[in-house]
Amino acid sequence: MLTKLEAHGFKNLLDFSISLGPFNCIAGLNGVGKSNIFDAIKFLSLLSDKSIVEAALAVRDSESTDPLDIFWTNGDFRIGRLRLAVEMLVPQNIIDDFGRQANSTSSFLRYEVELTWDKENKSKGILGINLAKEQLTHINKGEAASILNFPLSASKFRNKAVINRRKGADYISTEKMHDGITEINLHQDGNGGQPQKIPAKNIPKTVIANTNSAVWPTILAARREMQSWRFLSLEPSAMRRSNKMHEETSVGSGGGQLASTLHKLHDKDHNVFSRIASRLSEIIPTSDLRVDVDQVRQLLTLEVKERSGAFLPARALSDGTLRFLALCIMAEDPDFKGLLCFEEPENGIHPAKMGAMLNLLKELAVDAHSEPGEDNPMRQVLIATHSPVLVTLEDSDDLIYAEIVKVKGPDGKPASTIRCKSLPTSWRSKSGNDNISKGSIISYLCLPPGGQITLELETAQTAKELQTDES
What we know:
The chain has 471 residues and is of the alpha+beta class. Helices cover 28% and strands 26% of the residues.
């Protein structure tokens, strides 16, 4: 669970910080940079697996051909160093790449990474992005009480989710040697022994990405947490597709594997069809669903039953229905854990049905007033929206308003960046976040200027007066 993100020099993010709870909704106008917040999280997730250059190119699905695009620039000047930091609750029990089980000694961690680029090497045609700093340190229970400010149960949630048996050194630290070489140190969980030293310059991957063994259980737990961050981009074609029987049984980021995942869930719980059908009926008239099994072709096809009694295959459903259905299946899957990032979940959903979509997304998130476990998976949801309708449905604790502000840039000139603000009644406001101005939120919720169609609605008092006049 990601509880805080900090960024400086990444795309348009300068001295940026955001605190996160189980469910979070970022709203704001087009072009303010909401997607860059998602990109920062995605880049960190990619750094837990890929090389630094590959992660930089894959942030926006390889739209960029220059990995230096992740560094802040105003067109004339590009910053030479970027920093990203996260605070996160990580799994306490993990399995390494060799099938061995291990337990982390700390479950609340702070991870920092700094990258630089070499202008001289870039001019020679060499991709010169270097790891300048990497640090992983524990946060003890006493500190957690003041850091985790979202509404929670201390006994049922915080005391179960936060453990710490670490004293002394960081798990990963950075040291500059007397000869000027920067070294990344890996410290053992047991606090004893000499750290493993790795020269930082020209290292292709971060230390976390290179950790695959239970020898370093807490570092591996941090990696597993970052690997679990998902970025939904539900594609209708993927959701409509039938699945082979041997395909993966977990919903993919594009919405694939709906049928195979549902088939897996039904094998464990025969009531899952009726629960999902009941939920789906909140947005379309439906009474049941099933997975058709074609043994000859070894195909699984998801089908939804209309009120008329006819079963419709997934390929006949609307985009909005498929998006809602995919989330219903994910909510039922106990194997789905971690952070779910989802931009514009309102797409394809009628405004009158957005409340059902929002309730479903909130139910996906862990209940911080109950103990985390199989019935309450450690799941977190972060959405971004342009929809004023969705904003009006939000709880004040869950809403984050993103807007552009002017600051002094790295080149000393005025620069535009993004700030995330909260309603005054929100826990985020109590954590030190700036408050949303009344003017900002009103202008966001108002209808656009120049609207040609309006509805003049009579108030109850006016209607009563009219009735009195008529009598």
